[in-house]
Write a structure and sequence with these properties.
This protein is an alpha/beta fold and about 160 residues long. The strands form 2 sheets. Strands 1, 4, 5, 6, 7, 8, 10, 11 and 12 form a 9-stranded mixed sheet that branches.
């Protein structure tokens, strides 16, 4: 299973249930990686999308504790285990965990690959992703050339879980 996330210098990912910044090339990367695949997210992440609608051309799996929660064109589940169960009929390389912070924390140990857009700027953040550079279980296996968007510098990084 994969995860995909954009982080700032301090591994911040959000503020007040919004992304810290929208970088068009990062959004294209996200779209290209996840199109025609499975995305697993929490309810708040879904509700942060335009009009709170699921992503088109993907199987959207939404995890929520609200037993009455329903959303058109998405599969609603109530635990990580249920989400994994729904996704198991797909190849693991076609499944992407896309947030938010609680879902990332709960599912990090189930993932083998992490696509991390690292933004060289420290934002005011209230939500963070675990720092993979400080996690012995993960190794940086790929990094793009530095990219720029206005005055922001960022890189696309690929981390993989170390094989034991």
């Amino acid at each position: 299973m994969n995860l995909i996330v954009a982080v700032d210098k301090n591994w911040g990912i959000g503020y007040q249930n919004k992304l810290l910044v929208r970088i068009p090339a990062d959004q294209r990367f996200f779209r290209n990686e996840t199109i025609n695949k499975v995305v697993i997210m929490g309810r708040k992440t879904l509700e942060s999308f335009p009009n709170g609608l699921p992503l088109k051309q993907r199987l959207n799996i939404v995890i929520t504790s609200d037993k009455n929660y329903k959303v058109k064109d998405a599969v609603v589940v109530h635990s990580v285990e249920e989400a994994v169960d729904v996704a198991k009929e797909y190849a693991t390389e076609d499944v992407y965990v896309i947030g938010g912070a609680t879902i990332y924390e709960q599912m990090l140990n189930l993932c083998d690959t992490a696509h991390v857009t690292k933004i060289d700027y420290a934002y005011n953040a209230d939500t963070y992703f675990p720092n993979l550079d400080e996690n012995e279980e993960w190794v940086l296996t790929g990094e793009s050339e530095e990219q720029t968007y206005h005055d922001l510098i960022y890189t696309f990084c690929k981390y993989e879980r170390r094989k034991n």
